[in-house]
Each structure stands twice: as structure tokens, then as C-alpha cells.
Amino acid sequence: MSGHEGFTEFVAARGANLFRIAHLTCGSRDEAEDVLQSALEKAYRSWGRLHAGSDPEPYVRRIIVNTAISRARRRAILRIFLTDSPPETPAPDSLSGVELRQVLIAGLRGLPPHQRAVLVLRFFEDLTEAQTAEILRCSIGAVKSQASKGLARLRALIGADLHEEEFPHAER
Amino acid sequence: MPNVEHELRLAMVEETSALGVPPGLAHRVAQGANRERRARRTAVALVAAAVLATAVPGYLTVTDRSGVASPTQAVGVDGVKVGYLPPGLGAPVLERADAGGLRGTGATWGAGDDLVRVTVYRDPTFHTGGAERVLGGIKGTPETLPGVLVAKVRGRGAFTRAEGDDLVWEERSGLVLRVTVGVRHRDALRRIADGLTPKDPTGGVFQGLRFTYVPPGLHLTDPSTVVDPNGWTELGWSGDNGASIRLLAVRGVNAADAETLLTWARTRQNLHTATPEKVRGKPGYRADGGGRGASYSRMRLWLEKPGLGYVVEVNQGLATTLDRIVKGLVPAEPPSPSGKPSTPGNTVDHVAVASLPPGLRRVAGETTRLGRGWSAKIARWSDGSRDMEVTVVRGAVLHSSQWVDEFLRGQKRESARTRRPPMGIRTTDQDGRRGIFFETSEVAVHVKVDPALAGELDRIAAKIRVPPPSYRP
After folding, report:
1. pTM score
2. Chain A residue with minimum CA distance to B158
3. How far apart are alpha carbons B103 and B177 in whole angstroms?
């Protein structure tokens, strides 16, 4: 199998999942497509150097997440107004089901890019704190702290009692 | 109470469950990667070419990617290179786009959500505050600018809108750039803006010199003139953390010799210590100046010729680059008055004398006159019995009425400036020689003729060709 065929097969097999990560970390479909494409272009150029038989997905995932963070930060400089912050007023307690999850997605989009990436990697990709830290090139402590802050903001958003929630400190 | 982690997991799964692999993704990726490879190879070739063509500053060429990385048809917009555009936009439509009282030229690719527009506004009178004026002139944007946010483009103050689809900034005095994009290209707004480069980013010819090296991260501020008898003209660059470069041109008696230039710099430029040293092969000084701390500066000053001295000053942070900056200054002539090479026999300090009475020949040698804040070159033509002279004056004081009075002292003047061509002040000196005196933005010219040639004066003066302003915004 040639390198190009191998790459095409990888995109067919893992493209959807990578696209979902990009969508969650970027916050918009258009941007996610763009980020995914540029991440895959980088991977394609290095395809021959990627160790034969190793899984290229973590490599591509790392590019996606870091590209999304860096783009969001650039955009945040432009948009110094507060669209990146979720509303501070808690939603009614009656939120549940689809409505609740819509609020959570909106809140996720409003989190700072690094915090958002931590939550996506921890709770969508189910990565450990150590794996998340490796992708984001930060310490495990930073992952814990960012996840804690991100979840706290989401809890505040849906009106959940912070003390009733247990944050998973242990490694999975 | 809901479990946030659990609900967040479900929310993320729900949000993305309908997403599949975008159609044709692998193919587009392969195409894009190959295109990038080609672009990199071409960029390497451009850099190599720049090294061979030593007159071209390398640091400018390395970043020039126009028309290379994108299949979109790139164009220059009124002298501004468009270095990056998203792919697949096709050919642009060029149109006039005046706004805020500035002359505008727009290039538009695509439409609606797919729109990318680059607009170049020029104000030949070099007013400041161009970006605000453009914003004030945008239809639907109130002049009080609600909803407009402050941003930065390469260190320059800029304005954008909350939607992130419009960015406008003053690239340099008299030149305002604007990028407007549709929804699909909002993420490309910054990259497009960063890729816009005026064709002569070094500021062009300035007082006989041209920069070929400026450290990265600095941008041209503007040329300015301090108008007083001890005034000077300067070109400035600035960047983050107070980084700055100034090139000063000093004319007249203050630059009669190197020692006088040093004295002037001590009193006018806060120079405090200096060591004699040849600079660019001319008599000059290595010096320190400015204040304490961040305003501490390093200088080089030298006498280019009697009546013209230069000072280059950088802030402390750029001290290690000062010698390279000075070495990178190259002598440069202003643009030719006619756009064609001038005939040396009929030019005086780059001002062309295009019409001469029959039989007159140039008298060998030129005379130099120095005044406070000005220097002049005087050339003569004669046929043995009749003669004429043309004086070309340069200097910071040129536009002060006091200077005109001083310069024309002893000559009879018509009470007012004539409104008929050639416009200027008509003069008669003590020997009855008739003359016309006029000024442009960078020089003043005084033509004087023998009484026997008085009938030729208007034609001679009308055919004097002055170079266009060397600084083009």
C-alpha cells in the first residue's frame, strides 16, 4: 500500500472523529473543516516519516487542538468584546435533556480556547489527564486546573450546585 | 441536579453525531499539501534571486508570497501587494471606493459569504487619522464609532468590527488599508491583512538616501519636518516595546562641517557623548543620546557634504543593529521629473531645466549657498552676453514665510503671488534681472534671467520640471 493510499484510508477511517474534535474545539463547522484540512495537510507532508505501524491519530489530534486554540486566541485579540464569555446569569433549574445540552454546548463554545480543549479531550475523547497534558504541551496540574475551572463555569451556567458535583481527580 | 461531566459528554456526542468525513477531504488535503510544497520551493527561489540581486532587501522578499500559494488570481491594489488570499476565489473586480474623503481603490473577490475585498485609500496631503476618517465614511457606521473595536495590525493601531469581518488601519501617513470579508473568510481576515505590503515599504527615497535594512517588527511611521531655522526633516520607524529608528537630514549652516553638525545635535537632539569616527567614509561621530532608561539612544552622525548632514538614532534595544542599519543606507536619487532619465547638463540638484533660450550653454561648476535651515545649488547658463541662473533650495525651513522674506531680501517683489502660470513670486533684483520664485513640497526654485532674456522668463519657468515628492503614501 502506497503512502497516499494509506493516508486516504486513514482519513476514511478516522476523519469523522477528527472532524468532531475539530468541531468541538473550534466551535463552528466551517472553521472545523479548515482546521482539520490544514492539520491533515501537515500530517500528509510528514506521512512518510511517521513510524510505520504507529497510530497517526494522536499526532493529527494534537495539531487540530493546538491549531484551534491558536486561532481562537488570535480571534480573541480581534474580538475584545465578551462573546467568549458565557452569560453569568444561571439558567432556570428546570433545564433538562436536549435543552440542557444545548446550553452546555453554547457554554463550551464560550469558554477560553485552552479550557475548551481540555474539556473536549477529557470528556469527549476520554483521554487521561496525562494524555491531555501531553497533547496540549502543558502540565497535568494545568489540565486539572483548566478542567476544574471549565466545569465550574458550565455548572454556574446551568445552575448546578457546585458542591454536589464530584470532579474526577484520579487518573482514568 | 444534573451531573455536568455526564451531560457534557452527551451534549458533545449529540452535537457531533451527524458529522461525517467532509466529502473529498483526502483529495483536497493532498492537493493543498502539494501546493504548499510548490509554494515553499518558489519562495526559496525568490530568496535566492534576492540574494543575487543585492539591491533588493532580502527581508522584504522572504515574506512575499503573492500569487504563489493560492490559485486565486492575486493583483496589486493601487501599489499595495496582496500577499495572501484564500484559494478558489477567482479573478477580482477592481473599482473606485472612495470613503471618508480619501481616494479609494478596491479589489473584490467573490461575493456574499465568500467575499474578500481589499481596499487601498490614499491621501496625498498626508493627513493623520486616516483610519478614523475611513470608518467615518463607511455607510451605516456612525462617526462616533459604536461597535468599532481597537485592534492592531503589525504594531499599528487598527479598527475592526464586532463581527470580525472588517479591519481598517493607517499603514503609514496618507495610506489607509482595509480588508473586508464574508462569513466564510472571517478566519482569514488577519492573514490577508498581514499579507498586505506597500510596494516600497522602506519609505522610498528620503533626502538622498534609501533604507535597505530595517530590523523586523518595525513599521514606517511617517516622514516629518520640524520647521524652524534650526529645523530638520526626518523619517521614522517604530515597533513594539518602544523600538524606534530615526533618520534625520540637516541642511544649511547647521551642517556646514562635522563639528557644527555635532553642536547642532547636542542642542537639538539631546546628544550627550560623542566620539569622532568615520561614518560611511565621511567625517562623523559615534554618539549616545536621549534620556535615561528606555529613552536612552545610540546615534551615528556624519557630514555627507557641506550643507547636508545626517543623523541616525535608534533606541537602546536596537543598539546592536545600528551599524547594520547605517551600512544599509544607500545613496538614491529622487524620481525623475518626467519619468525618464534626466539630461545631466540641464539639471540642478535633480530639477530639470527643460527649455533654454537658443545659444545658452551651461557654465561649468555650481555654487552652493547655505542658510539657516536651507541649502541651495545655483547653476548658470550663458552665451557670453546674456545669462540666466537657476537656484534650487532644499531644507526644513522652506515653507515658512519668514524664510521666503529672508531669501528674497534685496529683490523687488510683485505685491502678490501671481495666479497665472507660471505661478509664483515675480522678482527684480538690483541689476534689473527678472525672476520667478516658486515652491513645491520638497524644493524651492528661483529662476533669474538677464534683462535681455526677460521675454523668455515665463517659458523657461514653465518648463522647469521638479521631481515628484519622493515620499508616496
Report:
1. 0.54
2. A78
3. 12
